[in-house]
Each structure stands twice: as structure tokens, then as C-alpha cells.
Amino acid sequence: MDYIRKQHMYLSIVILIVSSTCHALLDRFQEENSDQMFPRHLNPDDDSPITSCDFESLCLWTLSNHSDQSDWSVVSPQQPEKAQVGVMPGTDHSEGSSDGHFLLLSSSSTAEASGRSEYHLTSPVLSGSSKHCTLQVALYESHPASGNLTLLIQPVLSDAPVHSVAVNRESRDDRRAEWVVVESVIGQVDEPFEVTLLYTSSLREGGNTVALDSLELIDCESDHQDAVCGDYYHCVHSEDCIDPSLVCNFHTDCPYGEDEGFIC
């Protein structure tokens, strides 16, 4: 009996040492590589990438990919060589700085051959939204109005059809290339869903530079979620509410495990 107890004690000590060593190595790696993982000075613990992306830090939206490399790349105005054609923005939109970053569209060879293609960004799954929920994004085109923006609203747990919403854009008579903020109303959604921002381009002779920045979901927190769960955590894919102390505790308490996902 004493032998078994000693073995358990020895095993516990070994696990504690290994765990402490792993955490120390991980902390050291993150500290030494923070500049590569997250641009400049921003905090990697910020959870805002779920509802907004300024491309100065981690963004959790999924980008389309028509080739071996992503259709989109995060660049700064100081990287003009990244623009295959057209003119790069002189500053980003979110910071108004030449040191800032934005999302640049790089059309694939297949798209160039066909003269028309679709590119998209898809959000993480949202638990629901209020009637005031709106998507807002800054758009830059070196040839204004050379493409179309559409918002697709896709429920993830039902067979409900995809809902398509046009993105409001002001008509422009001038040919100046500048950042323009456009938006689309999502409205109330009473079930988990994701949104896809779809850019359909019509490539023209001489090409076009297309960039996005300041992507944000505004006033989208579901009133129903607050009413049901109050101060408790609302499981994204169900109506379950769990104590906040159970979130990110290395044990899945929500049916689909979202309490141990991106939020941690």
C-alpha cells in the first residue's frame, strides 16, 4: 500500500514538473515571437477579433482561397510591391497611418483568365443577433465601383436558406481612389449563424487594387441571450447557460465545447 502511495506521489511530482516546464517554454516562446505573431504593440489576449478586425492583430475571420496561397494578405502601405496592379492606399483606414495594416485582395491566375471571380471573408459563428445588428467595413478600390459587395447570412444548425443582403454603397462620380465606409444591416437572427462578406470582381484592363479594413459587427449582441443567461455565459450553439467560473477551465461544459474554444 505504501509502495502504491509513493508511486502516485512520484507520478504527481513528475506531472507537475513537466507541466511547469511546458508553461515556462510556451511563455518564453510567446514573448520572443510576439512581434511575428501579432503586429507591433497590440495585445494578443484581446477577444475583439470575433466581432471586429482592424488587421493590426489576430483576426478570426476565414479568408477565401482559390490557389496555393490565400486570396487575401495583410499588408501595409509601405509594401507597394504587394499590389499586383493598380495603386496602393497611402494609409490604412483604422489608424489612418502609413504604418497601419489592411487586407489586400490578390486575384488568382484563374480569376484573371476568366475575367470574373468571387472572394470572401467568413465570420466565426455568432450565437444570435439583435434587430440593430450591422456589418460595417472600409473598402478601397483603385477603380471605384469595379466590383460588388454582398453579405450572406447562413444559419449553422438548421436547414434555413442562406439570406443575401446587398451592401449599401454611395454612387461616386469622381475617379479618386480612397477609403469608403460601407455597411449592411444583418438584423435579428434567433439562432447561431455566420456571415460571409462576398466581393465579386469584374477585372478590367489595367487591373484594380481592392483592399478592406475596419471590419466590424456593430450592435449585434442578442437581447435574447442576455435575457436568458443574465451574468452567466451563454453557450453559442445551444440555450445552455453556465457559470462564468467554468469557462476556460480545461473542461468542456457547453454541449459543443465552445466554452473552451476561441474565447480562451
UniProtKB/TrEMBL annotation:
Classification via Pfam families: MAM
Chain ranges of the MAM domain: 51-222
Disulphides: C229-C241
UniProt xrefs under PROSITE patterns: LDLRA_2, MAM_2
Any coiled-coil regions, as ranges: none
Record-linked CDD domains: LDLa (cd00112)
Annotated signal peptide: 1-24
Keyword Signal: yes
Top-level division of the source organism's lineage: Eukaryota
Keyword entries, A-Z: Disulfide bond, Signal
Keyword flag Hydrolase: no
GO CC annotations, alphabetized: membrane
Name this polypeptide is given: MAM domain-containing protein
